[in-house]
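Good morning C.,

I know you're traveling, so I'll keep this short. The sequence:
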Amino acid sequence: MSQVLPSVTPNPGQPPVPPSTPLASTIARVKAGIDPWTIDDAADLYNLRGWGKGFFEISKNGQVLVRPTRTPGREVNLFEVVKGLRERGLRTPVLLHFSDLLHRRLQDLHEAFDTAIKENGYKGKYNAVYPIKVNQQRRVVEEVREYGAQYGFGLEVGSKPELLAVMGLTSDSPERLIICNGFKEDRYIEFVTLAAKLGRNIIPVIENLTELRLIVKYADKYQIRPKIGVRVNLATPGAGRWRHSSGVKAKFGLSLTEVIEVLEYLKSRGMEDCLQLLHCHMGSQIHDIRQVNSGVNELARIYTELAKMGAGMRYLDVGGGLGIDYDGSQTNFEFSTNYTLPEYAANVVYKIMSVCDEENVPHPIIVTESGRAMVAQQSILVFDVLGANRLDRFTVPSSLETVAKDEHGEVPRPLVDLYEAYNSVTERRVLECYHDALQSRDEAMNLFSVGYMSLEHRALAERMFWATCARVRDKAKDMPKVPEELTDLENSTSDTYFCNLSIFQSLPDIWAINQLFPIMPIHRLDERPTRKATIADMTCDSDGKIDRFVDNHDVKKFVELHDIKDGDQYFLGAFLVGAYQETLGDLHNLFGDTHVAHIRLDDNGNWWIDEIVEGDSVREVLSYVQYDANRLGQAIRHECERAVRDKHMSVAESNALVRNYEAGLAGYTYLETENGASM
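The tokens, ready to paste straight into the viewer:
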């Protein structure tokens, strides 16, 4: 990847500092008296080049670029996209889909397996299917269908509604492989059977023995020989956060004994050749390649045994599990992966080939259901910061003479002790002063609780305590070894940045499973961030916060952000959010779907907005929970008329309220702020 170097603006009177290498540029800046912060420092701080995998970079002026094809020069400036959307009347939060990036990910998947097949001399084919549960939005599924056509990629469904959607989407390509998972009743099986009668390449996967009997029933009714798959529960344990979704106690799948019963049942009806696919679920977001190897090896063994027992095996479906490196560490961490896509493909191909060659069984068509790896990286959520709460903004009085006295004409003792603790902070006494501040704060709270301290003194004690903590924190940074009691002080004194989004709607996995997503500013990255903050959303819920962030070596409890003032427009981006988040989002506090913009590049490398899907209006969200917006509006108008009649409002005031109420019903569910209009 070519490196983007920052332009350098010297201080007045200073000679220009030429950017060359990052190290040379930094040295030159230091000599010139300029802050040596560079965009390379920003990329390192947020580990952008780790989790970005070549899709993201920082421009010379400190704004995040998206490179959908990993090609320098063919890029989209996120800040410019947000500006363009505002010009079109669409405010943040907004979800950005990058169609070309999705295409590139499908190409990556195809190329990885194609290379592994050629290098190993594998005699079968590779056929990915996209599980639409990962992101069921129409545009995303259509693009997977469109871009995946040249690679022979198919689709996977897990419910009857998904099946009906996919049947309609693939009417012009009956050869597309459709894998049918999930629980199935009569109508589901009948749809599958009729689709096969139409000539569709569709395979229902048996999750329980009842489904087997239904498949045979409708095959007899419509006189077809169906392709049948079976999901087996492996003994190999899963890995990562979803490790319990696989194994012998998994929700779906059959035991080995039941798989053999399926084959015997089909044999008794002369249909053993119909059993063509073996499937398993090893887990989602598998972070350890050893678990992949073990699971594929066990699955391949079962496949070869079924083939030798007379089943008409053709497809080996290793399921999902191909992970995304959310923190960029490429380690054995549950939100990372200790392997690359080419390594994953090479291991899957080699393991299957080795077992089949050993057992003298033809190489199967390898099927994967790696939805997360297909679509996670193509979506970015951009949202604005509304304001910040800073605990270290408090100061200590310059003198206790300025502090109001209590009823005895004295300054309460806890305030005196806090004043002394603040002014005594040195490296030698840093821990002692911290302990003194804690004790004095507790004494102040106790005195207030029994009525011996005024509200004003209690508030001053709180301000003095946090000011002392901030001084202790700053002094501890210079110590060669920070005392253990002070290690969490950085977190407890961090800011809270209030942001215009709903985590429950747009990033539900953060709340539900502590998912880690890369989050960083999309501009001002040529400036050194000076604040450390957690993020709070707009919902009235204490869980509506983000306090786990990507780090190079661990998980941070804060993210480095820039200082903001009233009126500033400051945008953050949550990256790699294309898998599961849109479908799983809920209506907490009636915050609805955000705006969605689909961005593409033309042949000249210029970006354009291919499609805009406007987010939910207040009226739409209210209808989801059975409110009639028209009746609500009528009630307000009736109340306004009463107020005019009773001389509580003028006609103009009444009309203004009605107009604003109706405009509110038609408006965005998120805050429509006016600050920072100049951008």
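Safe travels,
E.
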